Each structure stands twice: as C-alpha cells, then as structure tokens.
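cron nightly-structures :: item 1 of 1
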Amino acid sequence: PILDEMRWVKDEKEIAVLRICGELAARGFDEAMRVTRPGMYEYQVVAATDYVYCNGGAFGPAYFAIAAAGLNGLNWHYNTNNHKLKKGELFYMDYAPEVHYYTTDSTRTWPTEGEFTPTQLKYYNCVKEVSEKVIAAMKPGITVNDMTEIARQVFIKHGFEKLYRKGIGHFVGMSVHDVGDYSKAFVPGVVFNVEPIIEDKELGIHVRIEDTILITATGSENLTKSTPTEPAAIYKLMKEKGVTE
C-alpha cells in the first residue's frame, strides 16, 4: 500500500521523464501518419514508429503495438499486425515507448488514405469531443466517476448512447496500466490516461483516441497532445513524406 501510493502520485523527477516519453510517443505517431498508405502492411507503420522511438532514446516499446486496420480494430488487443492496408479502412494504433522505466500510453485513429468517410467522421468526432471535454475538466478533486459521466453525456449528444462503454481510461507510470485507487479524487502528480472508445460491430468501426494526462495544481497537462486529433491536421501529416520514402 505504501509503494502503491508513492507510484500513484509522481514526483518532479518522474514527471520530467514522463514528459520526454509523451513527446517521443507523439513524434512516433506523426511519423506513423506520414507513412500510412494503402498497400503497405500494418507492421510497416509500426516499424516507422519504432525508428522514431529508438532514435529518440527510448529503451524500447512499452508494450506490443496494436496496429489495427479495418475489421482488425474489433479485436481490442490485436497485435498480429500483418494485414495489408486497403483504401477506405480506418486504422488505429495504440503504442508507446518506454523511457527510463516509465511509459505513456497513446492511441490515434486515422484513415488509410485521404480522408475519413462521412460515416467514419461521425463516429470519430464523438470520440474526439469526449476526449476534449474530459481532459478540459481534469483537475485536482475530479474522480473517475465524474469523467465517465462527462463521457456518457457526449455519447448521448451524438446519438450513440447504446454504444457507450463506462471505462474512460487508466493510471499510467512505471506500468502501462499502473496502480491507483479508482474511487479516490485526483491530486497533483496523478497521471491518468483518457481513452474513449466507440465501436460499431455491425459497421466494423472502431475509433479510439488516447492521451496521457498529468494532474497539476491548477488543472492538467496533456503529455501527448503534440500529435494531432483534428482531422485537417491528420490529413496534412498524411500528405508529408515519411521516413520510408
């Protein structure tokens, strides 16, 4: 119990490492978006991300990459990563580096080519709004129950109440799913991952956005925010040349 409490609240040295880890994770996702093209394999997108992580000084990956295109996204912990990307598919990657024994946890979802379809964008915008509203509310005193209720209201607003799942995220630190009491109000130094997910099995759609959030004395700090969630910014990155080109 004593060690768990120490791990739940990070000190300044730990926070400094987590900031490096979060920035490196974000840069890896930028590169993943740049290289994504129909005809390449999921593992090739992971390889481009690995290059950024290792080149930036990571010890290695924090966990097996989930790089899921199309129907593979319905398998939440898919990591075979050997599917050839096709036009019109959604692609999401859940992946992060380990730096000095600490990790963030990050996920982005983007189209394999061009832009989201109108239907995909409808689901994506719901998840994006959940992420933004939950993160905006995070500060000392907030609870996981508060965050899940904010998320539920956004799902209702978008007409997806039946697709709402209660979980909104998890603690992160020395482990990707780190220790922490989910009933306690947050205090400065707590690091929590906001991970809203929407899934429609009938349409084969799975959308996930995940960021690592540090609770500060006055609010919160998103450690992985520098990789985009705005569709226009994602499309721009996808038009840039990547490390494989």
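cron nightly-structures :: done
The chain has a mean pLDDT of 96.
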